[in-house]
């Protein structure tokens, strides 16, 4: 302790060093800080029977996710192809509708109907139509 002018100061003590979270391993005669999991991958110890048995559920889960991902991709491609085919069919049906509608409009014109009926006994009337009024009797 130091005493100086009416105050007592304690000497500062060194703080303890924080424990490192990384483990140092010897790779090619170097000390490199690497996490525990990365170290087990690099030195191959994760392939031991005990560790591999612990990781089987995770491996199955990752495989399942991969299969779902691939199936989803194929389903998306199939849907896109089907949409493309439906668009082409819709366009062809639209063209057919327009053609049929224009043919119907042409064949239902008065002059065209008269031309088609020239060989039959039906003739076009030259007298304009007359409105018939009927008086209803009240009871």
In short:
With about 140 residues, this protein is mainly α.
Radius of gyration: 47 Å
Distance N to C terminus = 132 Å
The residue ranges in which pLDDT falls below 50 over 5 or more consecutive positions are: none
Tell me the number of strands: 4
Query: Helix count, per DSSP?
Result: 3
Characterise the protein shown here:
- The protein has 139 residues and is mainly α.
- Helix content is 53%, strand content 12%.
- It has a domain of 90 residues.
- The model has no long low-confidence stretch (mean pLDDT 81).
- It has three helices and four strands.
- Strand 1 and strand 2 form a beta hairpin.
Give the SSE layout:
Elements: E1 2-4, E2 7-9, E3 23-27, E4 30-34, H1 36-43, H2 49-107, H3 110-116
Antiparallel strand pairs: 1-2, 3-4
């Amino acid at each position: 302790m130091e005493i100086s002018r009416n105050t007592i100061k304690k000497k500062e003590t060194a703080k303890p060093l924080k424990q490192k979270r990384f483990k140092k391993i010897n790779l090619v005669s170097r000390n490199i800080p690497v996490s525990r999991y990365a170290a087990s991958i690099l030195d191959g110890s994760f392939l031991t029977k005990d560790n591999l048995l612990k990781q089987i559920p995770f491996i199955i889960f990752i495989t399942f996710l991969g299969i779902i991902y691939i199936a989803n991709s194929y389903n998306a491609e199939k849907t896109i192809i089907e949409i493309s085919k439906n668009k082409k069919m819709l366009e062809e049906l639209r063209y057919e509708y327009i053609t049929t509608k224009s043919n119907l409009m042409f064949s239902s014109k008065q002059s065209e109907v008269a031309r088609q009926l020239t060989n039959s006994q039906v003739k076009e009337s030259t007298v304009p139509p007359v409105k018939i009024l009927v008086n209803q009797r009240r009871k």
